[in-house]
Amino acid sequence: MSVTTLTINGRLVSAAEGASILDVAREHDIHIPTLCHLDGLSEHGACRLCLVEVAGSSKLQAACMTKAVEGMVVTTDSERLRTYRRQIVELLLAERNHVCSVCVANRACELQDLAVSMGLHHVRYEPQAPQLAMDASHPRWIIDHNRCVLCTRCVRVCDEIEGAHTWDVMGRGRQTLVISDMNEPWGDSASCTSCGKCVRVCPTGALFEKGAVATNKDPHFVTYLRMAREQKLWNR
Amino acid sequence: MKMLDAAMKRHRHQPDSLIEILHTAQELFGYLDVQCLKYVGHALKVPPSRVYGVATFYNIFSLKPRGAHTCVVCLGTACYVKGTAAILAAIERDQHVEVGGTTPDGQVSLVTARCLGACGLAPALVLDNEIHGAMTPETALARIKAWTDHDRG
Which of B127, B138, B139, B62 lies closest to B101, judged by CA? Predict the structure, then answer.
């Protein structure tokens, strides 16, 4: 396997062929904030938080979607990037309804963690607060679209790990919504296997367990499942 | 249904022919109802949620029956600057119809487009697949009245 050499934040690092900038950075303990990325799932490039500067290009590149190339010079942290990332989190917070104090995922929320890590204490934009309907038709879980950031982790885990593809995304722009089957109530979904993977990978309080005050989200099972499948751990 | 089956067969039931097949279905039935979407999804082996997502993503697909006539108002930059917002408001008020809806008598459907690519004609409308440029609220309403007067007798 050939090895690529590139520079990240002035450090010379080596990468396996085909690795993304994000993979390489993680491998070398260089922190890049992410939201839609989840180890074990395909990349989606929706949140734009992992934007990095690549020398020779005026455009910012999403680290999760950009392959590491020989001789590439990457900057993962700068005043410009911090400004953009902060703005992205503010826009996410303003887009729907993210009032942490009354959210089931309070203190177990990746969006909240991102805001805290950026020292965000108020949002400059007017909250859109679109008053979307909640779906509590499933016997065990609820989907609250008002807390959804459209990262599509639920869609990807359902398709790639569970193999049911119950979830997908409908509409576009402000009307975008995560739906189950033919935009039916989740409880009526014929394809849903009630495995609960979507609830565990959701970074916010959009998917949560009924009766749960604080959900303990632990999405790391995805890497384990993928690894076990690839190495055929369960095949005798 | 037979023609839909034939179209799917022509594409050898490839999942990536979904958009093509939805076009055919809409041409055949005028709109896409949930039963039709389920049928297509099942035949092409595409999950129902993906089919629904695609059908709602593209403006050209309609999940509700369209009226006898369709009026597309362009809200692209050039048309907007030239005043399509006023035209749209006038049609909504005069015909008692909202964007994406159809008049109660099923005569006129009102939809908007991001840009028709006919900016030189701004403000532009598409009335039953025919493009009309340099419209004003008055001329637009007159055109729609011509349809309805003719059909409503």
Answer: B62
